[in-house]
């Protein structure tokens, strides 16, 4: 079952978001529309816009602006994907060729810029300065998180704290902005607004940790991307950080060397070490602890089917296999 199918009340709202996204990709430049449609229709689960809908409904929202707001979040997410794939030289995403693999780096970056600007055009139409402040701050932090990740590339001395700072910026901030902006749109009180903000932050961290775990577990078919991409790019993610901390000196040096040089020559021995040191279990437990924090934050909200779905979604985030 897809995440948006967990709640039948959300399903038509979710479809309205999809329609809104497609209808707002129009451009006088055909290539912009072509790349925009390609990336937004390439099979993503749309978890971030779903969180906008769930947060707004859980806080009692009765209007229609949660649909364009959810589209804003997806436009921003899609823009970051286009830029990330260029930075990482990625060739596969969600089982499909990346936009930069099909059309080149320059068009991908520029269409990413178009989607960023389109998201702010839609925000102006929503006319809520608090929401604009939250989302504009989030996009700034996301950019900083990407730069921090770039600085940490091929650095085997990356600490767990530094890793958590990166994923908070590059991934969790947009989850947090999605739920907090939904709360603001609904006019939630401060306690509920804070609860939904924290829910988004913690589920975002959990989601990214599991994403990083799967790089050492899954096949390309299951993940929709190349297995070992993180190692190839020299990213010291949580499974590797824990493996270096817990492994023997020989194991530690092998991983350090693999991170420094990048590539996939050492993928199998690194995967063997990650499993032997219990680093998969440790990373999953860390993600589960974040999901538990997300669920605990929802105590401030009244009971509803939307709250129940958010609890299910936190559980799904750490149990997913793709």
UniProtKB/TrEMBL annotation:
The keyword Repeat does not apply. Pfam families: polyprenyl_synt. PANTHER family: ALL TRANS-POLYPRENYL-DIPHOSPHATE SYNTHASE PDSS1 (PTHR12001:SF69), GERANYLGERANYL PYROPHOSPHATE SYNTHASE (PTHR12001). It is an enzyme of class 2 (transferase). It comes from the Bacteria. Transmembrane segments: none annotated. GO terms for biological process: isoprenoid biosynthetic process. The keyword Metal-binding applies. Keywords: Magnesium, Metal-binding, Transferase. Its EC number is 2.5.1.90. This is Octaprenyl diphosphate synthase. One of its GO terms (molecular function) is all-trans-octaprenyl-diphosphate synthase activity. The gene is ispB. It comes from Amphritea japonica ATCC BAA-1530. It catalyses: 5 isopentenyl diphosphate + (2E,6E)-farnesyl diphosphate = all-trans-octaprenyl diphosphate + 5 diphosphate. Belongs to the FPP/GGPP synthase family. Its cofactor is Mg(2+). Supplies octaprenyl diphosphate, the precursor for the side chain of the isoprenoid quinones ubiquinone and menaquinone.
